[in-house]
Amino acid sequence: MDTTMKQAVPTSKATRAAVMSALVWGLGQFYNRQFVKGAILLASEIMMLMYLIPAMPQAVWGLVTLGDTPTGRVKVGKMWQTVHGDHSIFLIIEGLITILVFLLFIWIFVTVVRDAYRVRTTIENGGQENNFIQSLQYVGENKFAHLFLALPATGVLFFTIMPIVFMIMLAFTNYSMPGHIPPGNLVDWVGFKNFSDLLTLGTWSETFYGVLTWTLIWAVLATVSCYFGGILVALLIQQAGIKFKVMWRTIFIIPYAIPQMVSFLIMRNMFNGEFGPINQYLSYFGLGKLPWLSDPFWAKVTVLLVNTWVGVPVTMVLVLGVLTTIPKDLYEAADVDGASAWQKFRAITMPMVLYSTAPILIMQFAGNINNFNVIFLMTGGAPANGDYQYAGSTDLLVTWLYKLTLDNHKYSIAAAIGILIFIIVASLSIWNYRRTRSFQEEDMIQ
Amino acid sequence: MMMGRKKKSIIRLTLSYILLGLIALTVFYPTLWILMSSIRPGTSIFSDTLIPRNPTLEHYVNLFTSEQFMYGQWYLNTLKVAICTTIIALCLVITTAYALSRFRFRGRKTVLSTILVLGMFPGFMSIIAIYILLNQLNLLDSHLALILVYSAGAPLGVFLVKGFFDTIPKSLEEAARIDGASHWTIFTKIMLPVSKPMITYVALTTFVGPWVDFILARMVLRTKENWTLAVGLWDMVANNSSSSFTMFAAGSVLIAVPITLLFLFLQRFLVEGLTAGASKG
Fold first, then answer.
1. B156 vs A: CB within 8 A
2. If you write DSSP's letter for every residue of A321-382 in order, what string do you get?
3. pLDDT band, residue B275 (cuts 50/70/90)
4. For residues B49, B53, B54 and B55, what is the CA-based torsion angle, rounded to 10 degrees?
5. What is the DSSP string of A110-121?
6. pLDDT at A307
7. Is the ipTM of this complex over 0.90?
8. Where are the domains of chain B?
9. Which residues contact A13 (CB under 8 A, 6 or more apart)?
10. What 8-state DSSP symbol labels residue A81?
11. Which of A304-318, B72-86, B146-160 is predicted least confidently?
12. Mutation test of the interface with chain A: which of B120, B160, B228, choosing the one with the most A Cβ atoms within 10 A?
C-alpha cells in the first residue's frame, strides 16, 4: 500500500483499481477487464472469509486463555454425564492453523491490491492488460521459482514450522503429567518457569547440567574419533604402494551402507554383558568380562566405540576425495628439499585436509549433539542414574527429551530442553558460517 | 642407502596391510556374526562357536509363516512407504533446490536462512504436534501419514542438491535460453540429466529412511499389521530379545542385505554425492 502513496505519476485510476480490490478482491481486476482472474479471486476471498470470520475470534480467545472449562462429569438427575469442556492443546493447534490462514489471507490481500494497481498503470500508459492465458504464461516465465517453491513450502509450513512453533509455545505452559493433562485438566501459561526450573531448581538442574556435560563430552569425542579415524583409514589406503585401493575402500564403506538402526541393534547384542560374543572372547583369552553396557563408564566407552565404527566411513570418503585433489608437485618439491614422510604429512597433507573439511567437522559436532539413534538403540540411556530425573547415565539431551515427552508426558519441560538444544546448535552453526563464509560467498563459484 | 629405503618401505607396507586387515576384520565381524546367528538353531544369543554346527534356515521361514511376526506384511508396508516417499520427496527436493539455486528473487536469502534454522531444531521436537495434527486429519495408523510427514520434511535437506546445482555452469542454460527454451525445458532437458549422480544419492538416502525410522513410525502405526520393518525389528529386540534373538538376526539380515547391496552398487554416486555436499558445506 505504501508504494501506491509514493508513486509520483498521477494515476488516480490505478489507485481506484487498488482501492476496489482492497474492498473486495477481484473488483479491481474486473475494472481492469481481467474477468477470469477477478472471478477466481472473488471466490477465494469468499471461501477464506467464511472460514476466518468465525474462526479468528475463537483462535485469539483460545490462545490467550487456553480454555476455561475442563472436561468433567456432571450429575444430571441420577446420571453422571460427561460434559466436554475446552481442550487447551487442541485450542493451541487450531489457533495456530487459523493464524497461518490469516497470514496467508494478508499476503494474498497485498498481492491482489498491488496487482490491480500495476495492471491499471500499464493500461493507463497505453499498454494492454493480459488475458488469463497470458497471465499464466507470465507466471510461468517470471515467477517460476515461486511456482516451484509453493508446494514444498506448504508442506514445510504445516509439518515443520507449525509443529516447532507449537513446541516453542508449549515451553511456556505447564502441559505436563500429573495435573495438567487435557481433557481432564486445563493448561496455563507459566512464562519462563520451565527454564528457571531447568537451570536452577534442585533435581531438574542437577539432571540438566549432568546430561549437558555428557552431551558435550560425547559430541567432542564422537566427532574427533570419527574424524581422525577416517583420516587414518584414508591415508592408509592412499599410500603409495598399497594395492587394491578400490577393494579396501569398498570394504570400509560397508558400515555406512548397512542401515544404522540394524547395526546398532546388532552391536547392542554383541556387547551384551552375559551372552555377547565380545565378552565370550575376553573370557576365552583369560580376561575378565567387561560390563560393556551396564556400567556407567563402560557404557559410555561402548557407545563411543560403536559410533566410531559407524561414523568413520563418511570421513574416509570425504578425505579420500580431498587427497586426490592435492597437487602432486607439492610432494615432489618436498622430496627435492629432502623432507621426511612425517614432515610431508605435517606440512602438506594435514593442512590441506583440515582446510577443506573443517566446516564438516563443526557440522558433525552439531549433529553429534543431536545424535539420537546411537544412544537410544544401544543403551536407551541406561544404566539408570539415581541422581537424575527421568534420565540415565548415557542419556544425551535429545534422548532425555524423548523420554520426557513420550514416556513421562512432561511436555513443557521437554519443550524447554528442545529450545535450549536449539540455542546450542544454532550458536555453533552461526559461528561456523561466520568462519567459513561459504554461505555469503556462495555465488562466487559458478 | 637404496637398500635401506626399500627395506623401510617394505616394513611400512607390511604394517599398513596388517592395520588394514585388522580394520577389515572389525568391519566384517559384526556382519558375519549376525549372519551366522541367523542360521543357528535355537533362539539363544549364546553360542560356543562362530559357525553353527547344524545350520538351518528355519528362522527365515518362521519370519514369514509365524503368527507372531508378520514379517512379509511389514516388508510390503515398508516397501510401499519407501517408494512413495522417495518419489514425492525427490520431486519436492529437486524443485526446491532448482528454484533456490537458479533464480534470484525477493526473499530468497530468507528462505535459505529459514531452512538452515529449521534444521537446527531436534528432529522429533515437533513430534507431539505432528501427532495431534495427524489425529485431527484422521490419519493415525495409516501409511499415508508416514508418507506425508517424511516427504514434507524432505525439502529441509535441500542444501546438498542446491550445492550440486550451483556447480553447474550458468552458461549452459543461458545458451539454451537464447535458443528459446523455457524454464521447464531447461529444467527437464539440461539440469536433470546433468545431476543424475546427485539425484541417485538423494533418492537412495530417502529410500532408506522409512526402513530405519522407528520413532515416528512407532507412534503413528498402532496396529501390528500396519507396522513397518523398523518398528517390528525394534519390538523384537525391546520386548522379547532373549526369547527370539535368532529371529531378530534373520530379520536384520533381510533388511540389511538389500540396502547394503544397493549402496555398494551405487557407490560411485554415493562418493560423488558425499563429496559434492562437502565442498559446499
1. yes
2. HHHHHS-HHHHHHHHHTT--HHHHIIIIIHHHHHHHHHHHHHHHHHHHHT-HHHHHHHTTTP
3. low
4. 50
5. HHHHHHHHHHHH
6. 94
7. no
8. 2-58, 69-280
9. A120, A124
10. E
11. B146-160
12. B120
- Measured between CB atoms, does A260 come within 8 Å of chain B? yes
Q: Which three cell numbers stand for residue B136?
A: 485431527
Give alpha helix (H) positions in B39-137. 58-65, 71-102, 108-118, 127-136
* Contacts with A239 from chain B: Cβ below 8 Å: 12-13, 16
Q: Is B192 on the interface with A (CB under 8 A)?
A: no
Asked if B218 contacts B71 with a C-beta cutoff of 8 angstroms, the reply is no
Mean pLDDT: which of A321-325, B255-259, B272-276 is highest?
B255-259
Q: Where are the domains of chain A?
A: 2-191, 194-444
Question: Which residue is it, cell 493448561?
Answer: A187
Which is nearest to B273 in space by CA: B157, B175, B190, B169? B157
d(CA A311, CA A316): 9
SS3 A72: strand
User: What's the length of chain B?
Assistant: 281
B69-280: which CATH topology? MetI-like fold (1.10.3720)
DSSP per-residue string spanning A129-196: ---HHHHHHHHHHHSHHHHHHHHHHHHHIIIIIHHHHHHHHHTTB--BTTTB-TTTS---B-TTHHHH
Class of the CATH domain delimited by A194-444: mainly alpha
Angle at A394 between CA A389 and CA A399, to 5 degrees: 65
Amino acid of residue A380? G
Out of B129, B248, B281, the one facing A93 most closely (by C-beta) is B129
